[in-house]
Structure formats: structure tokens, C-alpha cells
């Protein structure tokens, strides 16, 4: 069984609604979820907030957070997840922000740096990842790790 199927089945079983907040994956995370039959009962909407202005407007990420820490940061991922849950009225929110490349990296935040935030039961946990590969491979790894992280968080 695919990871997205396991996650959707768990959400259905626990009667939880999930939302997504995506930057570097540009909707790919939501697309994985909607490939699963029955997902409409647990996934009502997602947010694609590629630009900082969209993160602020749609998810309530603070401008001072974006200026101080940047869009690709633990702080931004946390605020994205919290804001997505609030704005969607969801029980669970998963947020991804990162640098998929091939450009955009810096010595402090090289290409492949990704932060995944997961909101559940009022708590947000954020994990930092450093992936390698092409742009599409980094996006794919981000989605798979976001699904796994979310599954682990709500199954415990």
C-alpha cells in the first residue's frame, strides 16, 4: 500500500480533516492525496503559496518572520502549518517549504534544503531535510517525506 493511501485511510479512520500548504512542491502533495479514492471526505482544500506575499496573505505567515528567517526556514514552515489549519478549519495541516533548485541555494541554505511542518492537536513539529538530486527528485522526496512525517505524527 502506498504511503498516501495509508495516510488517507488513517485520516478516515480517525475522522480527521487534513489540509496542505505548499511552496516548493507547487501542489504535488495535494495531487498525491487526491489520487486516493475516498480522500474527499478528509481533504477539502490546500494552499499553494509559492511567493512570500501568498504565504503572508493566505496563511498568515508574519512578514517579520519572512524577512528575518526567510521563506525556507523552520519558523516559516511552522507558521505555514498553523495558518493552513486555521484558515481551512482542518485537524491536520502539513506544510512544505524549500529550495528545489537548480538555483536559489546559498552556502547557508543549499539547494535541497527543505522544512516540513505538521500541525496536529494544536502542536506543530518541524523537520529539516537536505535532499540531493534534480529539481523534480527533490520535490518528489519532499512529498514522500511530508506524507511519512504526517502519518507518524497522527498515528502515535
Describe the structure.
- With 156 residues, the protein is an alpha/beta fold.
- 45% of the residues lie in helices and 22% in strands.
- It contains six helices and five strands; from the N terminus they run αβαβαααβββα.
- Strands 2-1-3-4-5 form a five-stranded mixed sheet, with helices on both faces.
- The chain starts with a helix and ends with a helix.
- 44% of the residues are buried.
Quickly list its features.
Maf protein, globular, 156 residues, alpha/beta
What is the element layout, followed by pairings?
Layout: H1 3-14, E1 18-22, H2 28-34, E2 43-48, H3 52-59, H4 63-69, H5 74-88, E3 92-98, E4 113-120, E5 123-130, H6 135-155
Parallel strand pairs: 1-2, 1-3
Antiparallel strand pairs: 3-4, 4-5
Helix pairs in contact: 1-6
Amino acid at each position: 500500500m502506498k504511503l498516501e493511501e495509508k495516510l488517507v485511510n488513517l485520516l478516515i479512520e480517525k475522522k480527521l480533516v487534513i489540509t496542505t500548504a505548499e511552496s516548493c512542491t507547487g501542489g504535488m502533495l495535494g495531487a498525491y492525496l487526491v489520487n486516493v479514492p475516498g480522500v474527499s471526505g478528509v481533504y477539502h482544500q490546500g494552499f499553494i503559496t509559492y511567493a512570500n506575499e501568498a504565504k503572508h496573505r493566505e496563511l498568515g505567515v508574519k512578514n517579520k518572520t519572512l524577512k528575518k528567517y526567510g521563506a525556507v526556514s523552520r519558523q516559516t514552515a511552522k507558521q505555514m502549518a498553523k495558518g493552513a489549519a486555521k484558515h481551512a478549519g482542518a485537524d491536520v495541516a502539513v506544510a512544505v517549504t524549500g529550495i528545489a533548485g537548480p538555483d536559489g541555494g546559498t552556502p547557508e541554505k543549499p539547494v535541497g534544503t527543505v522544512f516540513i511542518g505538521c500541525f496536529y492537536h494544536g502542536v506543530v513539529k518541524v523537520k529539516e531535510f537536505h535532499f540531493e538530486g534534480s529539481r523534480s527528485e527533490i520535490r518528489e522526496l519532499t512529498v514522500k517525506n511530508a506524507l511519512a512525517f504526517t502519518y507518524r505524527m497522527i498515528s502515535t
